[in-house]
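Is flavin-adenine dinucleotide placement plausible here? Inputs below.
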Amino acid sequence: MTRIAIIGGGASGLAAGITAVRNGASVAVFEQNDSLGKKILSTGNGRCNLTNLNMGSENYRGDDSEFIQEFLDGFGVSEAMDFFASVGIFIKYRGDYVYPLSDQASTVRDALVMELHRLGADVRKNCHVEEIRKGKKGFLIFCAGEPSLYRADKVILAAGSKASRIAGSDGSGYALAEGLGHHLSPVVPALVQLISDKKCLKRLAGIRITAQVSLYVDGQITAKDTGELQLTDYGISGIPVFQVSRYAAKALNRKQRVMAEIDFAPFLTTEDLMEELLRRQRLWKRCAAEKLLNTIFPSKLIPVLLSEAGIERQIWGEKLSGKQLGKLAAVCKRFLVPVSDTKPFSDAQVCAGGVRTDEVCPCTMESKLVKGLYLTGELLDVDGICGGYNLHFAWGSGIRAGRHAAVKNAL
Ligand SMILES: Cc1cc2nc3c(=O)[nH]c(=O)nc-3n(C[C@H](O)[C@H](O)[C@H](O)COP(=O)(O)OP(=O)(O)OC[C@H]3O[C@@H](n4cnc5c(N)ncnc54)[C@H](O)[C@@H]3O)c2cc1C
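Reply from A.M.:
I modeled the complex. Tokens:
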């Protein structure tokens, strides 16, 4: 029987463990926390967005798009659903987003842990793996907890990233992978808030508005997304910011210039907005300029838009020239926020970067450098957008690694 050591009892480690035992292997899971699957509990605001019906490589980023395409060719939504059904996770949908029927992430974690125990896997909690060595006859695993030394035929490294405040997200898996000869693409926070020192943001803190966020790196548009934007005293947040944040983080890491351009009226073209401003100017002759934007934008935002356009808020609207109205429309559609940093790893949902995927086979998750070593989940240079894509990759890469590692002749 193949002895497999799984380092990390999170989403991908649990999926790997269950699959490996089901395929006839003897499995030991090493988890440094006092319980398994802690991060799963926080996913999807406690509801766990398991996967997404709209599955495709365009929802993933990383240096190697072919890797993710090959991965998805073998692990799509139906394979994920089969796995959920096999561990007793009933599901429901919100649009394309897939959740457990219970709407509780804890029930997903419990289902996976129960199945792992039912199958008789050896689970070692409070056990921090410090080093992994490849010997002639398999692997030696050195732990801080008991037992301090463990021998395995194969290792599945499922240690996750260093994103989030959740205990265990310490990034120690990167050092373990590097210790075995792997290389990293720079690791930066992703799905994270962006920091700006633009002064007026402090006055705008608390505003939530549907907007389009376009990200420019050294003047080139790099990513954009539309959704509920949150303006905060430190910068910008919300789903559209999360979706573009990994490009900002990567660029800042390369010391490039990053600018977020906010379109506060994505439902109107600049011409439509201009036409509406002109119409209001004609109709409301004796009203202050700030009223021209009334009902289109939150009232807290209006003085800031006028000030950015260089217009006094109390000036009568009729006094504004066509050029001034044009400037105002442009500011509403292209409000510039220079980005100086991202929030730290502890605030991020995932990491971008990680173990280079050209060193890993997408069909088996086996290392191309070290035979018998498998790498899964967020440890790899694969990050998905919000919507269940990161967990989808964690389940799928874990299942693949578990299945392949369990096959004896794959040694
Ligand atoms: C707040 C939040 C919400 C999220 N919501 C969603 C969502 O709704 N949908 C979605 O798709 N994704 C979501 N994600 C992302 C998703 O949770 C992760 O991508 C996924 O959990 C990664 O799985 P993993 O197995 O690679 O890593 P993890 O789940 O982080 O598991 C790694 C495990 O390895 C252990 N470990 C690390 N190093 C060692 C060591 N040296 N020795 C022993 N054990 C070790 C850690 O303690 C941890 O338990 C969210 C993330 C966060 C932070």
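Short version: The chain has two domains: 3-189+352-410, 193-342.
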